[in-house]
Amino acid sequence: MTRMVTYANRAEVEAALAGLPRTVDPAFPQGIREVIDRTRNAERVFRRICDDSSVAADIRFAALYAVLLRLRREERLTDYVALASRYEGEFGSQPYFHTFRAVILRLEGDLASLLQAIEHSREAARLLPEVAGVQHQVAELITEYLEHQESLPRPGAVEEAEGLVDRAIALTYGRVAHYFETKARILCLRNDFATARSLVRRAIELEPKQGQDYLRRVSQYQTTRVKIDVFAQRADFMRTQDQFRREMGEFKTQQLELLGLLAGVVAFVASTANIASQATGSAGVRLITAMAGALIVVFSSFFLMSGGRDWRRGMLAASLGLLLLVVGLLAPTWLVHRP
């Protein structure tokens, strides 16, 4: 393995920055990373270039991008905000500055600021459609916003994030590890936990072991793996809770139906008994017999409709009830009354 050649002085660093592709070129982010890795005391050198107004503006902006990238890698976010704010007046019209603003707004920690960050990131993605990192930033911010929402995501939000991260993966030919981690987080929102876990494993395998961010990235991937397990358990709990609520609703409906049936039966028995008490002997007997048959038919039908297991017993009871009902309604007087 050959050792990477480092720049000997600031002049060589400025020459390397001048030789980079234009900032709107998709190759710019990778080129600036290579310059950072080959620069000794990178932050100090790049800050001096930024502060030197005699240097060309495009070189100074490239140096600013390099410092901000390094600060973000090291999670020195207070320094990141201070430096970006310092140069916003001079370089605020650069397309990449929308990504800097998105990072700063994301640090606010509330959903309103996160929505503003998404809009800045979308604008950067519109201006830099072929830059994979910018497309990925939009997907990552949308995913973070959806993860913090308590309600269901709005229609199309998950699809937008997934489309952007897929585009970022395609632009880099699937070589950037943390894009797969973002895709895994999106799949969690779809409850596709098995595929999400496999993508996290892929991200860990793809992460360059010699990279400066290796340990931080792998730790981040392991955290995402734990989140996937938590989301999976929460989804199982929600499914169980929904099933319980559905069963409770069905039980309440059955109870109300039964109460309605019992109320009807009580009213039917009371009115039938009242009428039978006022009728002649044979007519009263026939009425009581018909009432008994009707009650047996009603309860046996309810038993069968509610899913009673012993359907034969239910059919036998219904047959008996029908027999009594027929006897009560159609039997001749001599069968139910003897003088």
Automatic annotation (TrEMBL):
Say yes or no: keyword Oxidoreductase present.
no
By what name is this protein known?
A: Tetratricopeptide repeat protein
Regions that span the bilayer: 256-277, 283-304, 316-336
User: So which domain of life are we looking at?
Assistant: Bacteria
The answer on whether this UniProt entry bears the keyword Transport reads: no
* Alphabetical UniProt keywords: Membrane, Transmembrane, Transmembrane helix
